[in-house]
TrEMBL record:
GO MF annotation, one: antiporter activity
Name of this chain's protein: Multidrug-efflux transporter
One Gene Ontology CC term in the entry: plasma membrane
Lineage: Bacteria, Pseudomonadati, Pseudomonadota, Alphaproteobacteria, Rhodobacterales
UniProt-listed NCBIfam families: matE
A Pfam family assignment: MatE
Compartment(s) of residence: Cell inner membrane
Organism: Paracoccus kondratievae
Keywords: Antiport, Cell membrane, Ion transport, Membrane, Transmembrane, Transmembrane helix, Transport
Any one Gene Ontology BP term: monoatomic ion transport
PANTHER family the UniProt entry points to: FMN_FAD EXPORTER YEEO-RELATED, MULTIDRUG RESISTANCE PROTEIN NORM-RELATED
Transmembrane segments annotated in the record for this chain: 47-80, 92-111, 131-148, 160-182, 194-218, 239-260, 272-294, 315-334, 354-373, 394-415, 421-439
InterPro entries with a match to the protein in the record: MATE_fam, MATE_MdtK, MdtK-like
């Protein structure tokens, strides 16, 4: 193999992917700050935050398909020089994001009875509903920001997204300190304070990214916001049909983890708090792979627009190797420093802290087991989104996560009596199944020439 020819691909992938990784990590750091500060505030409040964020994420995952789906679509249109298609697809993705967020807001407002129905304790369910009634308003900002991120990423303008997201981190920490704990003369608001802080940062970030997208010289020719109110029904339908399977795929994957949260809540509040910490640490490493997956979507989408099968192949190999290296480093961190990592989230003086650290540290062993397969499944999805193949991956995700992952998790945790470790082994099983099937589909399709045909596979 001629490794020299991969050097330009590696440089391009890192130049595009590293700012995306950084922005995902910065966004995740905001959630980590919420979790850490809520862990200092109280164990019940931390458990409520874990459940509330899981509930929010399921609705977010379903709606994010429109914003993610247009990334490959825009990259392909730019490679073809089709300015009209760039504007139409990005604009209608923003429309769909707003419409969706408004439609699902009632589910967050009345989330308490839903959480009680799936077995959560009354105090946890009430606090989670308090959080969601405020944070639900932020869904519009989050989804529109995601769409604009994709728009800029397709033009390989990702650095500003990183800096805007990073700027939000100290702001949310300060607002959490003021509103959660009641500092600087403000009332002590607990989980409601965390929700208010999140919404403020989300809308400020949206305004900043929208202003940049409007100002960016290379993007002015697309006139994204000119006559923004004009509908484009044909393009809206195309983006909807492309994005809905992606959203359902994200729900299937996110549902695997939310399902594990719900089942962990059946075991106990301490176990749920520990599970939330371990899962968030695993999510931090996932953000690295997600950034590389976004880069894969753009790079493969560009090659598709040029009709360049060899470019798709080399881009796919490059991003897969980079993500595998990241996974190996993550495994080493989880296996060597589990208690130190978990301890960052908790108040050492709290009576329940030692027990939670032991539970969470044990779970990080299983987090290490699925690092490589988690990396490969998200890279596989990114590669397939680059060629606008979304329906079959949706089926693969549903089968892997819901017919393999959830049943294995439930069976091991409750029927076999393994407990929390059994839930995590179910995560390993579901992610491994998805990784194998998704990677197989992309590489077999490339070998058959499926991805260089004129008509996209939606």
């Amino acid at each position: 193999m001629n490794f020299v020819r991969y050097i330009p691909h590696l440089r391009a992938t890192l130049a595009l992917g590293l700012p995306l990784v950084g922005s995902h990590l910065a966004r995740m750091a905001i959630h980590v700050a919420d979790t850490v500060m809520m862990g200092w505030y109280g164990v019940t409040e931390l458990a409520a935050l874990v459940i509330a964020v899981s509930f929010f994420n399921i609705l977010f995952f379903l709606g994010m398909g429109f914003g993610i789906g247009v990334m490959g679509l825009i990259a392909t249109a730019i490679a073809r020089g089709d300015e009209v298609e760039v504007r139409r697809s990005a604009r209608m993705a923003l429309w769909l994001s707003v419409i969706y967020a408004v439609l699902v807001l009632p589910a967050m407002w009345y989330s308490g009875p839903i959480l009680l129905a799936v077995g959560q304790k009354p105090d946890v369910a009430q606090l989670a509903q308090d959080y969601l009634r405020i944070e639900g308003v932020g869904l519009i900002a989050v989804l529109c920001q995601l769409t604009l991120n994709s728009y800029l990423a397709a033009m390989e303008r990702t650095q500003v997204v990183l800096w805007i997201t990073l700027a939000g981190l100290p702001v949310v920490i300060f607002l959490n300190w003021v509103l959660i704990f009641g500092n600087m003369g403000m009332p002590e608001m607990g989980v409601r304070g965390a929700a208010i802080a999140a919404v403020v940062v989300q809308y400020v970030g949206l305004l900043a990214i929208a202003a940049y997208a409007a100002w960016l010289p290379v993007a002015r020719k697309y006139r994204l916001f000119q006559r923004f109110w004009r509908p484009d029904r044909a393009e809206m339908r195309a983006v909807f049909l492309l994005g809905l399977p992606i959203g359902l795929t994200m729900v299937a994957e996110g549902g695997l983890f939310v399902g594990s949260n719900v089942m962990m809540g059946w075991i106990g509040t301490r176990e749920l708090a520990a599970h939330g910490i371990a899962l968030q640490l695993a999510s931090l490493t996932f953000m690295l792979h997600l950034g590389m997956s976004n880069a894969a979507t753009v790079r493969v989408g560009q090659a598709k627009g040029r009709g360049d099968a060899l470019g798709m192949r080399d881009a796919g190999i490059t991003v897969t190797v980079v993500s595998a290296v990241i996974a190996v480093l993550a495994v080493a961190a989880f296996e060597l420093f589990p208690r130190q990592l978990v301890g960052l989230y908790l108040d050492a003086t709290h009576a329940e802290t030692p027990a939670i650290i032991e539970i969470a540290a044990a779970l990080l062993f299983y987090a290490g087991l699925f690092q490589l397969t988690d990396a490969m499944q998200v890279i596989g999805l990114g590669l397939l989104r680059g060629v606008q193949d979304t329906r079959v991956p949706m089926v693969i995700a549903a089968v892997s996560y819901w017919l393999v992952g959830i049943p294995v998790a439930y069976g091991l945790a409750f029927i076999a009596g393994i407990g929390p470790a059994g839930l995590w082994l179910g995560l390993v099983a579901g992610l491994t199944c998805a990784a194998v099937l998704l990677m197989r589909r992309f590489w077999r399709g490339l070998a058959r020439g499926d991805w260089t045909r004129a008509a996209p596979t939606v």
